[in-house]
Amino acid sequence: MVRSSVLGYPRIGEDREWKKALEGFWSGKFEEAEFHRQLQEIRLNHLRKQQEKGIDLIAVNDFSYYDHVLDTATMFGIIPKRFSYKGGVVPLSIYYGIARGTKDATASEMTKWFNTNYHYIVPELSEASPVLTENKPLLAYREAKEKLGVEGKPVIVGPLTFLKLSKGYSLSETDTWLSRLLPLYVQVLQELAAEGVQWVQIDEPILVTKLSAADLQRLKSIYETFAASVPNLNIMLQTYFESIENYSDIVALPVKGIGLDLVQGLSGNISSLKTLGFPEDKVLGAGVIDGRGIWKAELGEKRVLLEELAEFVTAERIIVQSSCSLLHVPVTTKHETKLVNELKDALAFADEKLDELVLLTKAVSQGGSEITAILEENDHAIEPLKLSGERNRSDIQNAVFAISAQNPERSHPFSERHLAQQNKWQLPILPTTTIGSFPQSPEVRKARQQWRKGEWNSEQYAAFIREQIDIWIKLQEEIGLDVLVHGEFERTDMVEFFGEKLAGFAFTQNGWVQSYGSRCVKPPVIFGDVAFKGAMTVEETKYAQSRTERPVKGMLTGPITILNWSFVREDITREQIAYQLAYALRHEVEALEQAGIGMIQVDEPAVREGLPLKEEEHEKYLAWAVKAFRMATCTVQETTQIHTHMCYCEFHDMINSIEEMDADVISIETSRSHGELIHSFELNTYKLGIGLGVYDIHSPRIPYVEEMTSMIERALRVLDPKLFWINPDCGLKTRGLKETVDSLRNMVEATQIARAKY
Ligand code: GLN
Ligand code: ZN
């Protein structure tokens, strides 16, 4: 019998009840006992749903109070000293302290979970003395069994992945750490085996990256240890997000099952299967239902794929799975009432994917005309979207085809543009500016609400926005900034704002996914050809410029950032979508220029987020990302100054690509990794205008003048003062008014001190 399996289910709940519970508890709305009760209810609901749909192997311990990597760390007592942990079960105050910080101790770092938009808490090994504080997978297993009669499949982050994602140790200490952790893992597994657990899913997504010979050796010893300690426990060694490297080594490990991603990792994994076969003593976890994308699967094709697999693996050794945890997709399409039918009919979120898994499993294990008819009906539902006018705009496709055949290039090289711009703008040395947004005060948010609810008409709202612009243009002049911005008061979110004004986008009502902790995002859906419909930012920018003699910088979100922060169609490549976005944005850039705006910033904070997991694919991705940016910005006059902005650190390995974007000025977040970035500029001789953020906007603390002067001085030891700009790290929309003004005043003062020396 072929079985179905889910690798993990979203935590947040249909109505984000998980988020509400967490935030309610944090704000003291209810006591801990009530909080546990609420989370248990949510957790059991999720299991019940999967049980009722008929999933055979349901993951338990996928649920979390915040993040599953943090759960693993606290389970092993890996708690930074600053939280004064006294042993025993880790109290929630410490658990949430590590995640969010306390008044006495800073939070642990948070970073991206592979190439997803989920962020985990980075375990800090340095000061830890690992012990098993509580067998969480066991508790989850018992709960599911006792409350629902579910024979759960405990899931746990594997040792190699856990070590690789942790920090606070040097390479030479890896084996020492492994030898500390391994006995704890063994204890967890032995207790599970003693309880009668049948399957355990050990997640090792790190296996899709290149491993050193030493790591392969470690992998081998980890799974040999497990095989020796729990010989009767079925271990599913689960990988996802790409195809596995080192296929032969991995499938030879002494585990019962190997889980492969047959969506993102399809071509690599299939070719390994075909050329190298699959061991006869193992079960294949065939991840054929996309755990990352929001689209319905073409079940007919998936069935064919599964039948092909039967050439390598006999049917009873196949488990039909999601390609990864469903954590990365929204919960259900059920409550989407506002989408056009052709779109809604083509979507499958987590719950709909459960149905797909069950259907597909039935189709391959039983077959029959009834099930075939259901599969066909499913595949039919996708047709109208494929054929829709919005997906097939020849005007857009032809235009984008034509411009993508050219090399997008400014009319003059930077050296000439720089002189022309210098002449035109007459800016002082070390010009000062900001990144775009100013504080979104409660007033601003309230105004937007009133307008959205229809209590205010558009003119009232527009008048309010103009007032805000007036206030901030005055403030910026008073503070003494050289290049001003309008403040982005009309925008909630830098992607949604543009998506709402472009063709090809749709917005769900409830398509939330967890980004980190209780924070959820609702990415727009790019379902059709993207097209410019009319000016998006000209009115506010032009208004701002009319209120001042100083230059006002227009503010747009770039093609790659819009792409990487949206759910996108899959019938054309991401590269194609990026070019469509670039073409649309080019219209906006030109409209701004025509309206007299001579400086235009096109933000690309999310370029890095699109980097493929496989290193050998980085270059190709970066090449089209750079091309898309240039496509959007290359048609302006030489005197028009193109700015860009990037944040979320770690750009040091991308400086060449950043340079190729050919923006006249780039501002980069650096206050959190200043030294490192400066160092990479030393090696690179960056030749365009650049502002390295001189203070961290993520903190409410007002930076001292001296801190910023020393930062400027350090940067100027490496970078040309004639090309250097002074600005904060990122946009200021989350900050308060007073701290923003005070910080910027100090920044201008620091600049004046620095200018005196050049
Ligand atoms: N212009 C945007 C702002 O200032 C940039 C935001 C970002 O980099 N994330 O808010
Ligand atoms: Zn930023």
TrEMBL record:
- The residues responsible for catalysis, as annotated, are H698 (proton donor)
Q: Which cofactor does it need?
A: Zn(2+)
Task: List, in alphabetical order, the GO biological process terms annotated in this UniProt record.
Answer: methionine biosynthetic process; methylation
Which catalytic reaction applies to this protein? 5-methyltetrahydropteroyltri-L-glutamate + L-homocysteine = tetrahydropteroyltri-L-glutamate + L-methionine
**What positions does the entry give for Zn(2+) binding?**
H645, C647, E669, C730
Q: Does the keyword Methyltransferase apply?
A: yes
Pathway(s) per entry: Amino-acid biosynthesis; L-methionine biosynthesis via de novo pathway; L-methionine from L-homocysteine (MetE route): step 1/1
**Which molecular function term from Gene Ontology is one that the record holds?**
5-methyltetrahydropteroyltriglutamate-homocysteine S-methyltransferase activity
Q: Which UniProt keywords apply?
A: Amino-acid biosynthesis, Metal-binding, Methionine biosynthesis, Methyltransferase, Repeat, Transferase, Zinc
The domain of life for this entry's organism is Bacteria
UniProt family annotation: Belongs to the vitamin-B12 independent methionine synthase family.
Q: Please give the name of this protein.
A: 5-methyltetrahydropteroyltriglutamate--homocysteine methyltransferase
Say which species the protein is native to.
Answer: Paenibacillus baekrokdamisoli
What is the organism lineage in this UniProt record?
A: Bacteria, Bacillati, Bacillota, Bacilli, Bacillales
The gene designation is metE
